[in-house]
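Weekly sync, protein design subgroup
Attendees: M.S., D.O., the rotation student, P.L. (late)

Item 1: inverse folding check
M.S. brought a backbone from last month's batch and wanted to see whether the design step gives back something sensible before we order anything. D.O. pointed out we never logged the input encoding, so this time it goes straight into the notes. Structure tokens as presented (462 positions):
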């Protein structure tokens, strides 16, 4: 079991890495383009054409060469060293009457025989051609002086080509630069995202966060619109037929655990918050409220995130009613409620008000609203602003019976999450747990058949 758990965690971490790299694909493409163009510019500026002169020759000595082929083939390595040595190159320079002679000599045996191919490469066609000629001349004329055991009998000298052997290609330069930069950038991003100090698996919450894991919400891909590359603007709700059974079941588990805890500790007013924005707290709050309403509970869902309200968008509510009217003293709060008849849910939406958000949320009228609401509803779910850098959620937490902290997979660092928890707990020790909100697909999620999940298998015959 431990091995399966470890493999599952590893796959989830790698999924996070791949997901993040895909999100940064535009940066990778930009790096590829810059490096590809840069590589082509450098290669073009430093390009030096090279020409090759080559010939076939036979190595002959006074003894029977064919009976000593192994020694002959082995001697070719020595000849490579001799022809690339300083003495041979100095001879060529004297013959060409130039010190600017660059030669690279290569000798190879043909099918492990005493027949060889000799190639001389230089940046000048003249140097390559005459270098081959003078090196052969130098070798044969100095056999006795240097005790060379073999003589070179030239068989064929091939005409030198006008085309360089290292053809300059802008496309090849661009391709190589892009390929190398892509590999390096993906590797660097992969290492960074893998070791980044975030919560990548639900198991890490109990290990690295100062709060227990309360529930797990799997990643649910939003349905596409008519054009597959455009995401649907509809919110992810458990009331939608397009929402998967697995996602709906996870919300029901969250609801069941909350109801159990609320019954035991008499919770009624529950706040849902997160450390940072875009962690899915509003979706969790909305679906939790819907699930409670489905379970025949009377629920009021309040949007207390006045800086960035979202419940009106989630439920597609277009009325002018909002909690702002009540908090500003312009009306009572009951008249500002939008009743969703289809879902049997009361929603108190909000209008954006960044300047006065803190004063309005922690005002006496908010306290009065909550005190009156607990007499009319079984549960009051409050969707608040992120709690790491804003004070509204911390101050609002003092009015709550319980608080749930949404932790989205691979978003906030563990340090930020723990600091958020400390802020909330210092305000009031009512944080009952973290809700893990998946951001990538869990490919190893449990998908057992109904019979095994609900215990029907116990009735099978042995």
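Designed sequence read out in the meeting:
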């Amino acid at each position: 079991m431990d091995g399966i758990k470890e493999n599952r965690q590893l796959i989830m971490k790698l999924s996070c890495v791949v997901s993040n790299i895909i999100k940064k694909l535009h940066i990778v493409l930009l790096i590829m383009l810059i490096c590809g163009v840069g590589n082509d510019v450098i290669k073009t500026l430093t390009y030096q054409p090279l020409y090759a002169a080559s010939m076939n020759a036979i190595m002959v000595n006074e003894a029977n060469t064919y009976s000593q082929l192994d020694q002959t083939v082995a001697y070719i390595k020595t000849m490579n060293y001799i022809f690339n040595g300083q003495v041979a190159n100095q001879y060529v320079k004297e013959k060409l009457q130039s010190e600017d002679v660059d030669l690279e000599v290569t000798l190879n045996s043909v099918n492990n025989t005493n027949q060889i191919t000799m190639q001389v490469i230089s940046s000048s066609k003249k140097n390559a051609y005459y270098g081959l000629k003078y090196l052969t001349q130098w070798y044969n004329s100095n056999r006795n002086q240097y005790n060379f055991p073999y003589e070179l009998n030239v068989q064929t000298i091939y005409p030198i080509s006008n085309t360089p052997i290292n053809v300059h290609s802008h496309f090849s330069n661009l391709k190589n630069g892009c390929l190398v930069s892509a590999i390096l950038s993906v590797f660097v991003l992969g290492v960074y995202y893998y070791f980044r100090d975030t919560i990548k698996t639900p198991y890490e919450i109990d290990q690295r966060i100062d709060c227990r894991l309360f529930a797990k919400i799997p990643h649910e891909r939003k349905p596409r619109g008519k054009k597959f590359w455009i995401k649907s603007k509809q919110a992810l709700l458990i009331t939608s037929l397009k929402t998967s059974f697995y996602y709906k079941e996870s919300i029901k588990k969250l609801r069941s655990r909350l109801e159990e805890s609320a019954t035991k500790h008499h919770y009624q007013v529950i706040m849902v918050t997160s450390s940072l924005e875009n962690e899915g707290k509003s979706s969790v709050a909305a679906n939790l409220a819907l699930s409670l309403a489905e379970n025949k509970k009377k629920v009021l869902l309040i949007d207390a995130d006045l800086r960035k309200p979202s419940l009106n968008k989630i439920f597609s509510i277009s009325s002018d009613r909002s909690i702002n009217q009540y908090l500003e003293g312009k009306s009572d709060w009951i008249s500002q409620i939008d009743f969703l008849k289809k879902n049997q849910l009361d929603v108190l939406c909000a209008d954006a008000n960044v300047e006065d958000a803190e004063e309005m949320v922690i005002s006496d009228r908010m306290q009065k609203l909550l005190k009156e609401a607990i007499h009319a509803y079984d549960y009051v779910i409050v969707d608040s602003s992120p709690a790491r850098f804003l004070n509204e959620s911390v101050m609002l937490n003092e009015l709550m019976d319980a608080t749930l902290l949404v932790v989205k997979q691979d978003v906030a660092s563990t340090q930020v999450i723990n600091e958020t928890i400390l802020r909330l707990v210092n305000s009031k020790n009512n944080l009952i747990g973290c809700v893990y909100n998946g951001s990538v697909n869990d490919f190893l999620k449990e998908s057992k058949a109904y019979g095994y999940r609900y215990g029907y298998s116990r009735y099978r015959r042995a």
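Discussion: The chain has three domains: 2-44+168-194, 51-157, 200-447. The first strand starts at residue 51 and ends at 60.
Action: P.L. to compare against the previous round before Friday.
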